[in-house]
């Protein structure tokens, strides 16, 4: 089976992490996020993937080349970002399958443990134009929701509302009949969620919902990105791409963690990163050459390449850009983002909520 992987978004919600690296290439549990998706796609029977690229397009081929994780790879760039639907139509130029064959479409920012072969089987049995993976969430009001009838057929594609009619939401993984992709306008900006799916339903095409409450996470926000990385390290979602066994922490080659430090909760410690004695790092992502000094506390945070946390500083759900420095004694929390290269002098900020 062939697949299209949508990886052209700018990832604005993850800035400053996405200034230098597109979201799908951010190191996640020790490897580029996409490595986990490629490995899972291969396990599901995908043999060839076309990357639909736009933002920092050249970085994808440089990272993965012509073959990775058991899958052959091709790259189709958009001169202008075409949105999710326009990108699918544009990338379909590089598909080699026949008009009735199923094509898997994956958002490049979703971690999912659902049963892709079961989704494809439903698609083929129903003779559907498109079959969407739908997941169930506790609070669907933050998402558009997707009701289905008793036979599993999608009846509507509804925008966000404070009174959702179902807790089923679009999980960002679709099976398209190859010929259904050709109904999307060529060389135009199109959203599959807002235009293609509602139009297919209105035209009477068979659109099916594969509802499966497996592990599922959209890593588009800093909090979710950290959670996704930690869940992979902890083994909550198995990934053959992870460079190590599941456990409380993943320590990459060349990292140095003092025996007197506490590092757990699914934390990754990148190559050349250092955690000194007396430091505590919980549920966080430390990229290459990050540094946590003695007595510092880091929770639910990302330290980008070369970022440094001084002695006794406290970081709670904070993003440090490349090379950012937090001087000794600072206390930062609540989603604060420190831009690359910025240096906070000692005890400049005290945003901590405790004490
Ligand atoms: P935000 O800016 O933070 O919303 O992130 P994003 O740009 O990634 O947008 P979003 O999360 O809605 O995108 C869902 C998926 O579609 C991601 O994998 C994106 O890389 C991809 N995507 C979004 N827009 C485009 C586009 O115009 N072209 C291509 N090729 N992919 C896109």
UniProtKB/TrEMBL annotation:
Q: Which CDD domains match?
A: NTP_transferase
List the SUPFAM superfamilies hit by this protein, alphabetically. Nucleotide-diphospho-sugar transferases (SSF53448)
Q: Which Pfam families match?
A: GMPPB_C (PF25087), NTP_transferase (PF00483)
Task: List, alphabetically, the InterPro entries matched.
Answer: GMPPB_C, Mannose-1P_guanyltransferase, NTP_transferase_dom, Nucleotide-diphossugar_trans
Q: Which PANTHER family match?
A: SUGAR-1-PHOSPHATE GUANYL TRANSFERASE
> Hey, which family's this protein in?
Belongs to the transferase hexapeptide repeat family.
Name of the protein: NDP-sugar synthase
């Amino acid at each position: 089976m062939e697949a299209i992987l949508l990886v052209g978004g700018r990832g604005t919600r993850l800035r400053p992490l996405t200034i230098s690296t597109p979201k799908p290439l951010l190191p996640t549990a020790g490897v580029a996020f996409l490595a986990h998706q490629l490995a899972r796609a291969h396990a599901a029977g995908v043999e060839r993937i076309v990357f639909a690229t736009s933002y920092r397009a050249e970085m994808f081929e440089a990272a993965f080349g012509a073959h990775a994780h058991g899958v052959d790879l091709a790259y189709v760039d958009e001169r202008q970002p075409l949105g999710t639907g326009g990108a699918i139509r544009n990338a379909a130029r590089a598909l080699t399958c026949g008009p009735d064959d199923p094509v898997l479409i994956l958002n490049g920012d979703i971690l999912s443990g659902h049963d892709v072969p079961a989704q494809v089987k439903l698609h083929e049995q129903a003779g559907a134009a498109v079959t969407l993976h739908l997941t169930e969430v506790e609070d669907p009001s933050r998402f558009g929701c997707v009701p289905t009838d008793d036979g599993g057929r999608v009846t509507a594609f509804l925008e966000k509302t404070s009174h959702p009619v179902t807790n089923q939401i679009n999980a960002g993984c679709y099976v398209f009949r190859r010929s259904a992709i050709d109904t999307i306008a060529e060389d135009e900006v199109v959203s599959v969620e807002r235009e293609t799916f509602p139009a297919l339903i209105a035209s009477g095409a068979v659109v099916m919902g594969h509802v499966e409450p497996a592990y599922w996470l959209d890593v588009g926000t800093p909090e979710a990105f950290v959670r996704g990385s930690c869940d992979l390290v902890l083994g909550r979602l198995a990934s053959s791409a992870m460079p190590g066994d599941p456990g409380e922490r993943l320590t990459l080659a060349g990292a140095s963690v003092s025996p007197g430090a506490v590092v757990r909760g699914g934390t990754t410690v990148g190559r050349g990163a250092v955690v000194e004695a007396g430091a505590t790092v919980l549920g966080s992502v430390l990229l290459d050459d990050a540094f946590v000094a003695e007595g510092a506390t880091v929770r639910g945070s990302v330290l980008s390449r070369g970022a440094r946390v001084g002695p006794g500083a406290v970081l709670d759900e904070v993003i440090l850009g490349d090379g950012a420095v937090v001087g000794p004694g600072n206390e930062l929390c609540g989603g604060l983002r420190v831009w690359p290269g910025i240096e906070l002098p000692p005890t400049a900020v005290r945003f901590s909520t405790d004490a």
